[in-house]
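quick one before i forget lol
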Amino acid sequence: MILVTGGGGFIGSHLVHQLVAAGERVRVLEAPGVEVGHLPLDAIELFRGDIRCPEEVRDAVRDCRQVYHLAANPHLWTRHPADFDAVNHQGTRHVLHEALRAGAERVLYTSTESILAGTQNGGKSVEQLRLAESRMIGPYCRSKWKGEQEAFRLADTGAPVVVVCPTLPIGPGDHHLTPPSRMTLAFCQGRLPAYLDCEFNMIDVRDIAGGMRTAMQVGQPRVRYLLGGVNLRLVEWLALVGRLIGRRPPRWKVPYPVALLTAYTSEWVADHLTGRMPMATVTGVKLTRYSMHFDAEKSRRELGLTQRSAEESARDAIAWFRQRNWL
């Protein structure tokens, strides 16, 4: 049995479909209330539980030889910042420790490229870097860094824990609309009058799932496998998408100080009035100050991975938006 935590998410759902297609027995641990209708429910075992509860995690990992841990709060903002640590750090500790205690042969932890902001000029490759907490930007990044630290700490003791670090996922099937898909959809719908220029690395979500499966089989502990694709500026991505749908990119570039002020204002309104996701997040805007361009060739070579082009990912994402009647 293979367990996937957060199997209802964008990356998790593709991973589940790939594992099922490969003939694996799959159990999904997903939080109560999370939509799972897009999963192959007739071919998996669905377990509803909260990774913040060790007892529920203990039940979910029972009899699982491999555990993929993807469950997290990825939204960069929450009304109660302590939730980030409770889910992304403490929840990760519960999953890793309970999986190993139950006898799992291999455990894979899913990190995030957000914790790598500003590391491109370090002396070591990204795969070997051990990062300082002082470099983390905001409570989300700090919580994910702590989760990764726990994975590395266990790996240093000889535990079979592998770490992968996907960059921004794009492609079809993002039912919950992660930030890259939400921004791309807004542009396709004509709801993106301006943009904050930034540099990022983007990879097809299906290639991330495939990379995870390979890392689970051949990846080595104590290494951060970077699952990355093409380096782009935001305006380049919008131009690529625009060519496919017949729309020009926005002409107005938002200055960073304006974007940061907007983010602080939006979060104040969300914190004290609406309780809904703000239009812009402080962490998200601050991350744009750093180039998030990465060279994933070392990880790609060690895992033997191939990847789709950005144009193929964009085309398939747009086709999926149309299937959902979102355009």
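fyi The domain at 2-173+203-228 is CATH 3.40.50.720 (Rossmann fold).
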